[in-house]
């Protein structure tokens, strides 16, 4: 067997893209050729050096298994696309939550409302766009559902949850440091708090602590989806490992 064929058999079993496989193959070939050159310098014939190099590296299945176990869930080429998707998600979310024309129409109404309340001498009504009591808005949706349209309720409940699902899902895929539920929780909470505060300060929306709860729930759901996906990927890799061991033991 030639070194090129040996390297090709090793990378053919790896759970990654063809571009990543080519990178691994190139690196593996560098190591193989380096060892072969050392053996030739020691006095071995070319063919003997190739056979001894393959023997020292081990079986292709064993090398493939070791490389597979050390690889991240997604390789660097797929990670680039996930990173692009993440930045697109951040841009769209920022637009919807802070920069959309609808936000500025609401801002005009909010500013006008606050000015009128101050002129009427009832400044307490300028705080209608704030809720700092947990579950107050959620309970209001339940007990006074007839005051709201179905679309409004779904937009505020489901929308606040779904908007942060990609954050909890994509972050652990891109950054290994975020493969922790605690870090995802605190980052989601911080991001939601910043957005709610900006909406309050610039009158682009209301500050609602229930939105924080729903946003964090969405981030945790996204993280849960990541954990399930990661478990399925690792299970598949372990099954492939078991199949390799089973086929090897049959000879």
Automatic annotation (TrEMBL):
Keywords: Membrane, Transmembrane, Transmembrane helix
Domain VanZ-like: residue ranges: 87-228
Pfam families (UniProt xref): VanZ
The keyword Nucleus is annotated on this UniProt entry: no
InterPro entries: Perm_prefix_1, Teicoplanin_resist-assoc, VanZ-like
Ranges annotated as spanning the membrane: 81-99, 153-175, 184-206, 212-233
Top-level taxonomic group: Bacteria
Keyword DNA repair belongs to the record: no
Protein name: Conserved hypothetical membrane protein
């Amino acid at each position: 067997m030639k070194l090129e064929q040996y390297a090709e058999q090793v990378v053919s079993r790896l759970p990654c893209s063809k571009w990543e496989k080519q990178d691994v193959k190139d690196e593996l070939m560098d190591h193989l050729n380096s060892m072969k050159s050392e053996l030739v310098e020691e006095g071995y014939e070319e063919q003997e050096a190739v056979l001894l190099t393959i023997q020292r590296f081990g079986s292709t299945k064993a090398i493939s298994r070791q490389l597979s176990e050390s690889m991240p869930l997604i390789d660097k080429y797929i990670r680039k696309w996930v990173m692009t998707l993440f930045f697109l998600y951040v841009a769209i979310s920022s637009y919807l939550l802070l920069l959309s024309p609808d936000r500025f129409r609401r801002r005009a109404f909010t500013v006008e409302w606050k000015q009128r309340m101050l002129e009427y001498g009832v400044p307490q009504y300028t705080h209608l766009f704030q809720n700092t009591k947990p579950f107050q808005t959620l309970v209001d949706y339940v007990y006074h559902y007839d005051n709201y349209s179905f679309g409004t309720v779904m937009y505020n409940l489901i929308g606040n949850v779904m908007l942060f699902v990609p954050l909890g899902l994509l972050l652990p895929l891109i950054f290994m440091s975020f493969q922790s539920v605690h870090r995802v929780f605190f980052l989601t909470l911080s991001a939601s708090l910043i957005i709610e505060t900006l909406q309050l300060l610039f009158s682009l929306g209301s500050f609602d602590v229930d939105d924080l709860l729903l946003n964090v729930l969405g981030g945790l759901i996204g993280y849960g989806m990541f954990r399930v996906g990661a478990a399925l990927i690792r299970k598949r890799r372990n099954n492939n490992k078991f199949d390799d061991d089973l086929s090897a033991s049959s000879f």
